[in-house]
Amino acid sequence: MNEGAVVILDAGPLIHLDQLGCLDLLATFPRIYAPQIVWDEAIRHRPLLQAGDIPTLSVQPNPDTGSSRLVALIALHDLDEGEAVALALLEQMGAGIFLTDDAAARIAGNALGCAVHGTLGVLIRGFTHGLRSLVEIHRLLAELPSRSSLHIRRSVLDKIIAQLPAL
After folding, report:
1. Threshold 0.70, pTM exceeds
2. What is the CATH number of domain 1-167?
3. Domains of the chain by residue range
């Protein structure tokens, strides 16, 4: 992941990382922005979540819809309002990284030319930045289906775990 890139955050990673007790891993990004609607969605799911829990996070006013290309991508992928506004902020700020767990939003983010990662990428980044041990990352990934609401096929999760260095 580009270390200096501006990061736009969708609600999914906020919710799932909070469920896993791993919000601190977002601090590995120097600048993270979330539109107000995304923050509000995260709070609906995680009422105890505080913006101060993520020191590098800045909640931004919701931007306008964005370019005609973005409007077409949003319609094509049937994105919800939070994802659409996050992508509009991404486009407006020229962000380099989009953090989302939604498959359709990931496709749209890639189409806009940015790197797209989700909760799993942030967890692995926590290991590469020395915030979690390999043992902890293995444990978090193994426990992810029971500790978070992230929907991921077991086969996909097993492949990701298999790609980590051996314990």
Report:
1. yes
2. 3.40.50.1010
3. 1-167
